[in-house]
Amino acid sequence: MSNCLFCKIRDGLIPARVVHRDDVCMAFEDINPQAPTHVVFIPLKHIPTVNDIAQEDREAVGHLYTAAAQVAKARGHSEKGYRLVMNCNDDAGQTVFHIHLHLIAGRPMGWPPG
Ligand code: 5GP
Ligand code: ZN
User: Fold this and answer.
1) What is the C-alpha to C-alpha distance for residues 82 and 2, in angstroms, rounded to an integer?
2) Ligand 1, atom nearest to 94 Cα
3) Ligand index nearest the alpha carbon of residue 113
4) CA-CA distance, 65 to 43, in Å (whole number)?
5) Which of 39, 70, 86, 112 is the most buried (most CB within 10 A)?
6) Cα–Cα distance between 39 and 1 in angstroms, integer?
7) What is the ipTM of this complex?
8) What CATH number has the domain spanning 5-105?
9) Which helix (H) or strand (E) holds 28?
10) Residue 100 annotated to the active site
11) How far is CA 9 from the centre of its chain?
12) What is the pLDDT of residues 20-44, one digit of tens each?
């Protein structure tokens, strides 16, 4: 998708602080961090929202979680915990329409979110 911010980051057209990259997904620091750790994991494939995840995408979406858990562990968050969130459309606050898993950690968090 040519006009997608996260595709541009994936392609190196917009700079980002990349923390993970493999053949299925990549991760970078959120530009507006909501916690000491706030990393965004995206599939390399452009998928606009959770509503658009196809059967063939299931492995890639699962891969986001295992990659996020690896980064959380590397940053020492495994024991105290962390939050993984994927927002879908307006009511959830999705602003970038290329699915992404937020890894948020390093402070206590309330539930439910506002
Ligand atoms: P959403 O609200 O769609 O779930 O999350 C989008 C996230 O992307 C937000 O947390 C926002 O701060 C982040 N973001 C928006 N633009 C950029 C950017 O240009 N670079 C990076 N690294 N993050 C961005
Ligand atoms: Zn995209």
Assistant:
1) 33
2) 3
3) 1
4) 11
5) 39
6) 22
7) 0.99
8) 3.30.428.10
9) strand 25-29
10) yes
11) 13
12) 999 999 999 999 999 999 999 999 9
